[in-house]
């Protein structure tokens, strides 16, 4: 998903602006999402353990086990695989921000974290063109000594 988008942006930018240094890194999600992912990781292991051992957690609460639990007891391998893969999918979704920052000469020009969305390739090229022109203009201005 987002890694591929970053790599595509990186490829286009490096072709158009070969002198620009491009770096990417993962940004941590908000703490609530990290906590949800941690909880799911532990819950997944407990649930898989209960499925394998055959203990009915619903009986502990005086409840009748739902039909999905009955199915899981009859199909332990499939149930464990489903719990594992579904939980991993949700954990990965919680931990993925898909965010990357774009800077030019150590000056931020785009932040998905601040804007909440990714720029289109056209927007990004326009932003970089504007920044490059501004930098060239600033460098060509005479410097006044104070």
UniProtKB/TrEMBL annotation:
Family listed? Belongs to the SelWTH family. Selenoprotein T subfamily.
Which ranges does the record mark as transmembrane?
Answer: 32-53
Q: Which GO terms describe its biological process?
A: cell redox homeostasis
GO molecular function ontology, one term from the record: thioredoxin-disulfide reductase (NADPH) activity
The record's listing under Pfam families reads: Rdx
Q: What is this protein called?
A: Selenoprotein T
* Catalytic activity from the UniProt record: [thioredoxin]-dithiol + NADP(+) = [thioredoxin]-disulfide + NADPH + H(+)
The cellular component terms of Gene Ontology attached to this UniProt record, alphabetical and capped at eight, are: endoplasmic reticulum membrane
The main place the protein resides is endoplasmic reticulum
Give the highest taxon in the source lineage. Eukaryota
Keywords annotated in UniProt: Endoplasmic reticulum, Membrane, NADP, Oxidoreductase, Redox-active center, Selenocysteine, Signal, Transmembrane, Transmembrane helix
The record's listing under Gene3D superfamilies reads: Glutaredoxin
Keyword Oxidoreductase recorded: yes
Q: Where in the cell is it found?
A: Endoplasmic reticulum membrane
Organism encoding this protein: Sylvia atricapilla
